[in-house]
């Protein structure tokens, strides 16, 4: 079976949901040939009576299955239909709930004033199979039964980098990765809890943001701006840097529908790099079971202080969590789930061509 993955340019989604899974499947030697591309080869033409160009032809490059990652345009829907008309199975890959992007997010206005969500839903509805990164997204996009939840995983080469817990720093670095403009409310769930924890360990701790701090100082009631380390666009470089900087990683989430559908990615990254994780009790973080839970501001304060005051316990927990990642959450562990999903899509397309109903599939749940 040949699978062609048409990727997004968003580095994280590309890395975790197409590029690394394709590499893992190839390495598994299960008779599936994978290749990735940004965009498919198409022929555009203007239909009679229309003022715009439309997709009239698309080249599947001999693939049996084409994966469309984050399809959100009219052209994407045209491509999906044209591929299916050729007998090619189409998988739609989604890792965010577009309809629920919160007000204040830098993409909010674009999503509210465009037809992006409508096309995402249409593509998901007509796909031979939908793959998603969380159980909640399966409910949102695969109510028709043709869906597979395949959790995020990290490559072994990342989990085997020198872990953060091997260090014995005099000043413990408490860190957060991300961009405040795209996650404007998440840090605020801690209220003054983070600063209280830093106050209790003054001189022995510091706060660092790997990404864009923006107005984090105001949102977190900090007496001074946090240390800001520029974001790394290369994901391997980002993961390497994060593990070299952080001793404690925080993962606060406001529990709205958008975040309820987010995967367990951030906490898994912390764990893979041997960084002690302090995190919100979101459904996916709870499913993962790594790190220490913090819900109220006083939980964040106590968690930060304990991580600094008890270094042996911090390192022991971080080592335990990293061991879990090595045992269960590597891309080599999820390779078969991707293959099963793509084969199910192929089967669904074959049945559709024969006039039979597609088989319902919740491949990869659990």
How is this structure best described in words?
The chain is of the alpha/beta class. The chain has 2 domains: 2-153 and 331-363, Glycogen Phosphorylase B (Rossmann fold, 3-Layer(aba) Sandwich); 156-328, Glycogen Phosphorylase B (Rossmann fold, 3-Layer(aba) Sandwich). The chain is built from 15 helices and 15 strands. The strands form 3 sheets. Strands 2-1-5-6-7-8-15 form a 7-stranded parallel β-sheet, with helices on both faces. The protein has a 6-stranded parallel β-sheet with strand order 11-10-9-12-13-14, with helices on both faces. The protein has a two-stranded antiparallel sheet with strand order 3-4. α1 (11-28) packs across α15 and α2 packs parallel to α4. It comes from Geodermatophilus arenarius.
Describe the structure concisely.
This protein has helices at 11-28, 74-85, 108-112, 116-126, 135-141, 156-159, 193-200, 216-219, 235-245, 257-260, 265-272, 283-288, 297-309, 311-328, 331-353; strands at 2-6, 33-37, 41-46, 53-59, 65-69, 89-94, 129-132, 146-149, 172-179, 205-212, 227-229, 248-251, 276-279, 292-293, 361-363.
């Amino acid at each position: 079976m040949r699978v062609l993955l048409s990727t997004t340019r968003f580095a994280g989604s590309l890395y975790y949901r197409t590029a690394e899974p394709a590499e893992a499947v190839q390495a598994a030697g299960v008779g599936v040939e994978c290749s990735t591309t940004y965009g498919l080869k198409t022929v555009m033409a203007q239909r009679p009576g229309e003022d715009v160009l439309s997709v009239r032809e698309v080249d599947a490059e001999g693939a049996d299955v084409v994966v469309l990652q984050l399809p959100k345009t009219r052209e994407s829907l045209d491509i999906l239909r044209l591929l299916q008309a050729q007998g090619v199975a189409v998988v739609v890959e989604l890792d965010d709930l577009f309809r629920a992007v919160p007000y204040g997010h830098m993409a909010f206005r674009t999503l509210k004033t465009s037809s992006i969500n409508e096309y995402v839903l249409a593509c998901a509805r007509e796909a031979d199979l939908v793959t998603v990164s969380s159980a909640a997204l399966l409910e949102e996009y695969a109510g028709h039964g043709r869906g597979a939840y395949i959790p995020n995983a990290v490559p072994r080469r990342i989990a085997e980098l020198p872990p953060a817990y091997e260090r014995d720093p005099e000043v413990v670095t408490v860190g957060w990765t991300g961009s405040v403009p795209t996650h404007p409310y998440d840090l605020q769930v801690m209220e003054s809890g983070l600063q209280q924890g830093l106050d209790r360990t003054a001189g022995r701790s510091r706060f660092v943001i790997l990404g864009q701090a923006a107005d984090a100082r105001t949102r977190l009631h900090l007496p001074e701006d946090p240390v800001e380390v520029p974001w790394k666009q290369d994901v391997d470089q980002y993961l390497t840097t994060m593990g070299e900087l952080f001793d404690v990683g925080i993962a606060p989430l406001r529990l709205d529908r958008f975040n309820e559908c987010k995967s367990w990615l951030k906490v898994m990254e912390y764990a893979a790099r041997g960084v002690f994780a302090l995190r919100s009790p979101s459904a996916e973080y709870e499913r993962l079971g790594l790190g220490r839970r913090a819900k109220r501001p006083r939980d964040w304060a106590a968690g930060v202080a304990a991580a600094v005051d008890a270094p042996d316990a911090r390192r022991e927990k971080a080592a335990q969590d990293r061991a879990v990642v090595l045992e269960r959450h590597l891309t080599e562990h999820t390779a078969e789930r991707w293959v099963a999903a793509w084969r199910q899509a192929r089967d669904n397309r074959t049945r559709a061509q024969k006039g039979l109903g597609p088989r319902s599939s919740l491949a990869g749940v659990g």
